[in-house]
TrEMBL record:
<dbReference type="GO" id="GO:0015628">
    <property type="term" value="P:protein secretion by the type II secretion system"/>
</dbReference>
<feature type="transmembrane region" description="Helical">
    <location>
        <begin position="12"/>
        <end position="35"/>
    </location>
</feature>
<dbReference type="GO" id="GO:0015627">
    <property type="term" value="C:type II protein secretion system complex"/>
</dbReference>
<dbReference type="InterPro" id="IPR013545">
    <property type="entry name" value="T2SS_protein-GspG_C"/>
</dbReference>
<dbReference type="InterPro" id="IPR012902">
    <property type="entry name" value="N_methyl_site"/>
</dbReference>
<keyword id="KW-1133">Transmembrane helix</keyword>
<protein>
    <submittedName>
        <fullName>Type II secretion system protein GspG</fullName>
    </submittedName>
</protein>
<feature type="domain" description="Type II secretion system protein GspG C-terminal">
    <location>
        <begin position="40"/>
        <end position="127"/>
    </location>
</feature>
<keyword id="KW-0488">Methylation</keyword>
<dbReference type="InterPro" id="IPR000983">
    <property type="entry name" value="Bac_GSPG_pilin"/>
</dbReference>
<dbReference type="InterPro" id="IPR045584">
    <property type="entry name" value="Pilin-like"/>
</dbReference>
<keyword id="KW-0472">Membrane</keyword>
<dbReference type="Pfam" id="PF07963">
    <property type="entry name" value="N_methyl"/>
</dbReference>
<dbReference type="GO" id="GO:0016020">
    <property type="term" value="C:membrane"/>
</dbReference>
<keyword id="KW-0812">Transmembrane</keyword>
<dbReference type="Pfam" id="PF08334">
    <property type="entry name" value="T2SSG"/>
</dbReference>
Length: 128
């Protein structure tokens, strides 16, 4: 008889298990709500770094060639016959897979990503 009582007390009751599952569900929801946009922040930072790399490549191109590139594709082609491009074609897209926009006006230029919404000239655009 004593043995049966010990066996019954060794496990959790169904109510205790349901309570634990409910608490874990609530905690999981809170974590997702608070940290759910971490991937979005990482993409924004990756896009900022890509724009900075392209900005540097534009500067190198300007020094080597003596003029600004007409478009970003100029950075993917070798400057000399034995030279490789400064960037790969894949480097010309933002972290969402959209092409970066490059506008040049004399010596001034902008490199722009449409940002998370994929639309240019909105609040979430990322520029150099």
């Amino acid at each position: 008889m004593k043995r049966n009582r010990k066996l019954r007390r060794a496990g959790f009751t169904l109510v205790e298990l349901l309570l634990v599952i409910t608490i874990l569900g609530i905690l999981g929801t809170v974590v997702v709500m608070n940290f759910g946009d971490v991937g979005g922040d990482a993409r924004k930072e990756a896009t900022r770094q890509s724009i900075a790399a392209i900005d540097s490549a534009v500067t190198v191109y300007n020094v080597k060639v003596g003029k600004m590139p007409k478009d970003l594709k100029d950075l993917t082609v070798g400057i000399n016959e034995d030279d490789q491009g400064l960037l790969k074609s894949a480097d010309l897209n933002d972290a969402w897979g959209n092409p970066l926009e490059y506008k040049v006006d004399g010596r001034k230029y902008t490199i722009r990503s449409a940002g998370p919404d994929g639309q240019m000239n909105t609040e979430d655009d990322i520029t150099n």
